[in-house]
Amino acid sequence: MKGKQADMYELINKQNVRAAFTNYGARLTGLWVPDKNGKMTDVVVGFSRVEDYLTATERYFGATIGRFANRIANGKFTIDGKQYSSSLNNAPNTLHGGKEGFSEVVWDAAMPDDHTIRFTRLSKDREEGFPGNFHVKVTYTLTDDNELQVEYVASTDKKTIVNLTNHAFFNLNGEGSGTILNHRLQINADRYTPVDSTLIPTGKIESVAGTPFDFRQPQTIGSRIDQADEQLKNGKGYDHNWVLNTHKPGEMFTAAIVVGDQSGIVLEVLTQEPGVQFYSGNFMQGKNTFKSGAKDDYRTAFCLETQHFPDSPNQPSFPSTILEPGQEYLTKSTYKFLVVK
Length: 341
Known about the structure:
By secondary structure, the chain is mainly β. It has a single domain, classed as Beta-galactosidase, Chain A, domain 5 (Distorted Sandwich). 4% of the residues lie in helices and 37% in strands. The protein contains two helices and 26 strands. Strands 10-11-12-13-26-22-21-16-19 form a nine-stranded antiparallel sheet, with no helix packed on it. The longest helix has 6 residues, at 50-55.
């Protein structure tokens, strides 16, 4: 771990909701919330030991993602006429910050109180090809209202690009409970960004109307996932960015609502970001064993990654991901848990 100690941490609130973390990847490793019968249910898949994250075939379980979440076409981007390159860890593209992204490093950790954990690090100039000495702080707060709030703060000494998110894999029926295809999902987005066969956006922003990507009204995740649709073929299911309907920068907006079909647990995802990537667990292969003893079988967890759009540095029509020296990058997302009886 390059000389740094990797540890496990836990937050707890007055309702005995627990959130577990490790500073390896500043990641969320488990989250226990009450189901409709009051049973505490672990809705975030993960491991109980840091060593298991090091050997896992899936690198992103619960991790903080940076410097740039999602994909960058051919690993190349240009700032003020100068081209930069990052490692191609999802050929032919860069994915989630490259081979040694934020998920692969040990962060500094501090717990100012029982409700809060703060992870910090310095990403040095040209780490994974990105310009600027980049100071980043990620703070998780577990409230007594059963909300897990995430705040991302960063600054740079050179003009750079940034797109931070959390990559929690959820199963609202509980880790190891089987398929997520019967979860009901609503995404508050009229449009999405179609992708090519390498999952890079085409640059178009298209309506979800009349497509399997229309989750404006609640639908089960699996209701249309096997339709003969080119975009579903490209993603091997859902692995796309939705353009959220909010038009007010900085406003917390309800991006998505998911209901566990067995547990009655409701997850509301709120964010200040313009997009959310919904991933339906298409590349889960049953090669890793979770803390419950269950395998990471095909489509047994989903992700809702609040973000700016994929490949934004190469897409002039997308919201900018440029951060200037002297500016502060600040964005917040919240995962709120309720139950329906």
